[in-house]
Design a protein that fits this description.
By secondary structure, this protein is an all-alpha fold. The chain contains 21 helices and 3 strands. It has a single domain, classed as Na+/H+ antiporter like fold. A hairpin with a 4-residue loop joins β2 and β3. This is Na+/H+ antiporter. One of its GO terms (cellular component) is plasma membrane. It is a multi-pass membrane protein. It comes from Atriplex halimus (Mediterranean saltbush).
Length: about 550
C-alpha cells in the first residue's frame, strides 16, 4: 500500500513539474515575443504606417500560425485568455497612465463635450447596435441568443479603441481634436463597461418603465460614485505624502506609495461594484495635479516613466495575445461548416458600428459648434470625420467583454456563442489592421498640414506630469512649463478671467466661471491641505536644494 501511495505521489509530482516547466517555457516565449514587438516597432517607427499595436497584432497572428502547425491544429496560443487577467492586471496601468498624463486644462475645458461624446454618444451607439443585432440576427441561423445577449452585444461593440488615431495626432498642434478623441475614448470605455455590468445585474425577462428607470439610476450612480472614489483616493495619497513627506528618508517609499495607491483605487472600485476604469482614471488626474508635485524631483521623473512603461507593456501584451487567440481552433470549429454566416455577422456588426458612430458624432458636433462662439473652439467637418473614424476601431475591451459574456473560462460549447466570439475577433482584427493602417493617410488628406502629425509610440509623452512648477518667480506669478514639449501653459488667460457678476455671464461662459471659482477654492483650501503645484519638496543634498543654494550664492 505504501509503495502504491509513493508511486502515485511520484507520478503527481512529475506531472506537476512537467506542467510548471511548460508554463515557464510559455512565459519565456511570450516575454521574447514582447521584446520582439518592441524592437520591430522601433525599426518600423520611420515607416509612419505601423505602430506597436499593429506590429504586436501581426506577430501574434504569425506566432499563432506557427503554434497551430507545431501542435497539429490543437492550440494556437501560449496562455489561456482570462478576463480577470485583463481587467485586474492589464487594464489598470493603461487607464491610470491616461489620466496621469492627460493635459488637464484641455480636458476640462472640453469636459462637457467629452462627456456628451463618451457617455451620451456611447448610449446612442449601444442602442443602435443592440436594436440592429436584435432585428437582423434573428433572421440568421446563428443559434439561440437571449435579450441579455443582444444588449451585451451593443455594449461590447460600443467600446472603442482610438489608439491608432492618437498615435497620429499631436496634442500640441491639434489640442481640441486630440482632447476630444482622447477624452471620449476613456469615458467611452468606462461607459461600455458600466452598461455591460448593469445588463448582467438586471433581470431582463420582464421589462417595464421601473426597470428602465432603475437601469438609468444605477448607471448614473456608478458614474458619479466611481468618479468621487477616484478623486478621494488621489487626494488621500496627496495628503499622506505631503504630511509625512517620505522623501526626506527614502524616495523609494514615495514611488511605491503612489503606485500602490493608484492600484488601490481600482481595486476599491471593484470591491464596491463600481467602475474601476473611471475610478483609476480620475485618480490619475488628481494624483498628477496634487500628489506628483508633493514628491521629490527624482520621484517625479521615476513615476512619470514608470507609469508610462507599465502602460506601454500592458498594451503590447494585449495586442500580442489578441493576435494569437484569434486563431483558437476550438472557437472556429463551430463555424467551419458555415463560414458565410460568420462573415455575414461580422459585416453586419461593422456596419452597425459605423452607423451607430455617425448617429451621434455629427449631430453632437453640430450642437457643440452651435453653442460655441469662437471659431477656434468649433469642430470643422473634416475634424468630425476624424472623430468618427477614430471610434471605428475595436480592441481589447471588446474582446474581454465578449469573452465574459459568451465563454466560460475562455471556452465555449454553444454554436451561437462561438459565432459571436469569432465575429468579435474578426471585427477587432479587421478594424485594427485595415482602419488602423488607413488612419494616417486619411488624416493627412483631411487635415493636410504636416506639422499636425508626428509618429509616436503607443505611450506618448504627454500631459500633466510634464508640468513642473517654477520656483522663485517674481511676485505672485503662477507659471507652468511643459517640460515634455517645451511649451508654456497659457496661464495669462487664467489670471485675467473677470469675476462673474451675473447669471447671464455664468451661462455665456460656464468654463471660465467654473474655473474662476475653482481657482479660488484651490488657493484657499485645496493646495494648503493637499499640496500640489507650488509645494516644492526640500531634501538636503537634492537637486532642488543645490539649485536654490546656487541662486542664493549668486545674489
Amino acid at each position: 500500500m505504501w509503495s502504491q501511495l509513493s508511486s502515485l505521489l511520484s507520478e503527481k509530482m512529475d506531472a506537476l513539474a512537467t506542467s510548471d516547466h511548460a508554463s515557464v517555457v510559455s512565459m519565456n516565449l511570450f516575454v521574447a515575443l514582447l521584446c520582439g514587438c518592441i524592437v520591430i516597432g522601433h525599426l518600423l517607427e520611420e515607416n509612419r504606417w505601423m505602430n506597436e499595436s499593429i506590429t504586436a497584432l501581426l506577430i501574434g497572428l504569425s506566432t499563432g500560425v506557427v503554434i497551430l502547425l507545431i501542435s497539429g491544429g490543437k492550440s494556437s496560443h501560449l496562455l489561456v485568455f482570462s478576463e480577470d487577467l485583463f481587467f485586474i492586471y492589464l487594464l489598470p496601468p493603461i487607464i491610470f497612465n491616461a489620466g496621469f498624463q492627460v493635459k488637464k486644462k484641455q480636458f476640462f475645458r472640453n469636459f462637457i463635450t467629452i462627456v456628451l461624446f463618451g457617455a451620451v454618444g456611447t448610449l446612442v451607439s449601444f442602442t443602435i447596435i443592440s436594436l440592429g443585432a436584435l432585428s437582423i440576427f434573428k433572421k440568421l441561423d446563428i443559434g439561440t441568443l437571449e435579450l441579455a445577449d443582444y444588449l451585451a452585444i451593443g455594449a461590447i461593440f460600443a467600446a472603442t479603441d482610438s489608439v491608432c488615431t492618437l498615435q497620429v495626432l499631436n496634442q500640441d498642434e491639434t489640442p481640441l481634436l486630440y482632447s476630444l478623441v482622447f477624452g471620449e475614448g476613456v469615458v467611452n470605455d468606462a461607459t461600455s463597461v458600466v452598461l455591460f455590468n448593469a445588463i448582467q445585474s438586471f433581470d431582463l425577462t420582464r421589462i417595464d418603465h421601473r426597470i428602465a428607470l432603475q437601469f438609468m439610476g444605477n448607471f448614473l450612480y456608478l458614474f458619479i460614485a466611481s468618479t468621487i472614489l477616484g478623486a478621494f483616493t488621489g487626494l488621500l495619497s496627496a495628503y499622506i505624502i505631503k504630511k509625512l513627506y517620505f522623501g526626506r528618508h527614502s524616495t523609494d517609499r514615495e514611488v511605491a506609495l503612489m503606485m500602490l495607491m493608484a492600484y488601490l483605487s481600482y481595486m476599491l472600485a471593484e470591491l464596491f461594484y463600481l467602475s474601476g476604469i473611471l475610478t483609476v482614471f480620475f485618480c490619475g488626474i488628481v494624483m498628477s495635479h496634487y500628489t506628483w508635485h508633493n514628491v521629490t524631483e527624482s520621484s517625479r521623473v521615476t513615476t512619470k516613466h514608470a507609469f508610462a512603461t507599465l502602460s506601454f507593456v500592458a498594451e503590447v501584451f494585449l495586442f500580442l495575445y489578441v493576435g494569437m487567440d484569434a486563431l483558437d481552433i476550438e472557437k472556429w470549429r463551430f463555424v467551419s461548416d458555415s463560414p458565410g454566416i460568420s462573415v455575414a455577422v461580422s459585416s453586419i456588426l461593422l456596419g452597425l458600428v459605423m452607423v451607430g458612430r455617425a448617429a451621434f458624432v455629427f449631430p453632437l458636433s453640430w450642437l457643440m459648434n452651435f453653442a460655441k462662439k469662437s471659431q477656434s473652439e468649433k469642430v470643422t467637418f473634416n475634424q468630425q470625420i476624424v472623430i468618427w473614424w477614430a471610434g471605428l476601431m475595436r480592441g481589447a475591451v471588446s474582446m474581454a467583454l465578449a469573452y465574459n459574456q459568451f465563454t466560460r473560462s475562455g471556452h465555449t460549447q454553444l454554436r451561437g456563442n462561438a459565432i459571436m466570439i469569432t465575429s468579435t475577433i474578426s471585427v477587432v482584427l479587421f478594424s485594427t489592421m485595415v482602419f488602423g493602417l488607413l488612419t494616417k493617410p486619411l488624416i493627412m488628406f483631411l487635415l493636410p498640414h504636416p506639422k499636425h502629425f508626428t509618429s509616436c509610440s503607443t505611450v506618448s509623452d504627454v500631459g500633466s506630469p510634464k508640468s513642473y512648477s517654477l520656483p522663485l518667480l517674481e511676485g505672485n506669478q503662477d507659471y507652468e512649463v511643459d517640460v515634455g514639449n517645451g511649451n508654456h501653459e497659457d496661464t495669462t488667460e487664467q489670471r485675467t478671467i473677470v469675476r462673474p457678476s451675473s447669471l447671464r455671464m455664468l451661462l455665456n461662459a460656464p468654463t471660465h466661471t467654473v474655473h474662476h471659482y475653482w481657482r479660488k477654492l484651490e488657493d484657499s483650501f485645496m493646495r494648503p491641505v493637499f499640496g500640489g503645484r507650488g509645494f516644492v519638496p526640500f531634501v538636503p543634498g537634492s537637486p532642488t536644494e543645490q539649485s536654490t543654494n546656487n541662486l542664493v550664492d549668486r545674489t
